[in-house]
Amino acid sequence: MRGLASVVLPLLVVACGGVMEGPSALADAGAFEVAVSIDGGTSTDAGTSAPDTASFPLDTPGPRPDTVAPVDEFVLAADADAIDLVPDLGLDLGTPDSGDTDAPPPEDVPLTADVAPDAGPPPPPKVSVGAPVAVTVQSVSVGAATTALGLPGDVVLVSASEASQLIDAKGKSAVVLAAGALRGAIATPAVLVAAGAGLLALDQGQLVVSPVSTYLAAGGATDVEAVPVTGGMDLYVADGGGLHRWHGGTLSKVAPDGLPTAGARLAFGPPWMGAPALWVVAGEVLYALLPDAAGLVAWTETPLAIPTDVAAAPEGKLVALVADGVHVRSADGVWAIGVLPGALQLAHAPGAAEVWIRTAAGLHVYAEAALHAVTGAPSEVTSLGQDAATRALALTATGVARLWLGAVPPPPKTSWKKDLEPLFQKRCASCHAPTGYAPTKLDTRDQWIANIDKITYMTTQGYMPLYGPALTQDELDLIAAWVAGGLLE
Question: What DSSP assignment string belongs to 311-347?
Answer without folding.
Answer: EEETTTEEEEEETTEEEEE-TTS-EEEEE-TTEEEEE
